[in-house]
Amino acid sequence: MIKSLAKYIGQYKKQMLLAPLLVLLDVIAELSMPILMSKIVDEGIPAGDTGYIVKIGIYMILLAMGAIFFGVANMKVSSTAGQGFGANLRDALFKKVQSFSFANIDHFSTGSLVTRLTNDVNNLQNTLTMGIRLLLRAPMMLIVAMILAYRINARLSLVMAVAIPILGIAIALIMTNAKKLFTVMQTRMDALNSTIQENLIGIRVVKSFVRQDYEKKKFKKSNDALTDAAIRAASLAVTNMPVMMLVVNAATLAIIKIGGGLVINGVMMTGELISFISYIMQILVSVMMLSTIFLMLARAEASGKRIIEVLETQVDITDPVELKDGSILLQKSTSAMGISRNNSQVHPGKIEFKHVSFKYTVAGTGENVLSDINFIVNPGEIVGIVGGTATGKTSLVNLIPRLYDVTEGAVLIDDVDVRNYKLDDLRKGIGMVLQQNTLFSGTIRENLLWGNENATQEELEKVCKDAQAHSFITSFSQGYDTFLGQGGVNISGGQKQRLYIARAMLKRPKILILDDSTSAVDSATEEKIRKSFYSNFKDTTVLIIAQRISSVSRADKILVLDDGKVMGLDSHTELMKSNRIYQEINTSQQEGVLANG
Ligand SMILES: Nc1ncnc2c1ncn2[C@@H]1O[C@H](COP(=O)(O)OP(=O)(O)O)[C@@H](O)[C@H]1O
Ligand SMILES: [Mg+2]
Asked: Which of 172, 324, 359, 370 is disulfide-compatible with 564, CB 3.0–4.6 A?
């Protein structure tokens, strides 16, 4: 794990190397103090040599200042390394998440990704900052202090032989349990973040359904679960504290008792005993520091695993593998034949589904959502797609820009398998208005320019007129510079939909896909938008998923979907004559109209 994370230290290697050096100097300065102290007590005081005492005293002051300087310098250097490492890691995670396919995103919940990018990275970052200090300092102090104590009095240091194993056992006990507890804690933090996020995004729905109480309870449950896990982890660390303090104090008592006897018998000097006790304290403090570090490492390990899981996720929808002769290899297809890339240069917008079956691998039921779909849409045709809810309409069109990949069969654009296009090229050629769409904080213009960042004002106005958005945009006092809040809160659903359409049109795509994208627009406006397709998008292949048959009745062809299967592909007139499902949908909608008066 350390190996795969170490590369994110990147440009902070210098600090990583400098830090231990500073720690070493700090430790040397600190451990020299007791030696000087014993010189004052054992030599200066008995001889009554004030000059000597003052001289050693000044050395001690200088050493103390040195220790402070090295300590502060080390803190600065290791914080820089830690923060820098955290920034690099977050950056890498964010980039990775950007490359995720829809299926990858289905796998991690958004809340969990947020926790991993923030809290888990913070854990690692803090561990590194503290780690480079303590991880070196504690063992160094321990070893040097042990040697010095041993040199003062070997027999007396046997007390350590009893104390250290007891502390060791205590630490081992913490470690074995801590990692489990910290993993549980992070998972609960995921759950909490997901709850918060869902609630905040859907806060309007929550309020309109008067579900605040339910949401509060849900939040409390997540929050309590997290608190519970955090307390359990903390109390594990806390219960070990008394044990350690007990051992430390018992050891000190034993040394004073035995050492005092030695001093009285004249075997040991008072100054030696004083420095011996300082070393023993330092040894025990180091051991406790080590236990803190082990706890931190346990927590970092839990977080590190979660981060690596994201970083090492196999992105399942990627660019095709290019062969030496310029042809590209089909990625997952059963027939792994190379297809010349030249085919993809002409791009008139023909769509073909060949024996396509599809199921959702991550959150799906395991059943096919689409089974054996076969149809061809010719360049420039306008095709409607109708069918009841959950019949697979959205799933079907998502396969075209490879938001998901087919499970079996192939989707072809201009006779080339979509998996053989470079993803960017493929998606640039397709304008898509997703059923679940969104606008971003920024002006209307900024949002529209997603479709084509180089578009001129005229082009903007042209598509907005086509999408029936121009008049409402200009009715705002700021016009195209009107600022949209997060998700476009300050405009209506129908207005948003018209902006989505304009944004997709601005791409001037060869294929335009509209997934139920006029559901919030009134029929008269919808009719106008539709007219503009027929007159302005003659070269564009347009797929329109619609709830109302009236929305697509003038299309060249209508694809009727039922239960993930194609039940018809023909013109409205023909389908009305012969297609039972189409007739049923039509009848039910007529009844709806009549019932509504
Ligand atoms: N991301 C997903 N993960 C798992 N199942 C999904 C996902 N999206 C849709 N489904 C399921 O696929 C089926 C078809 O959904 P969809 O294509 O959205 O239907 P439609 O657009 O016709 O209403 C539904 O049963 C739905 O529950
Ligand atoms: Mg849908």
From this structure: 370
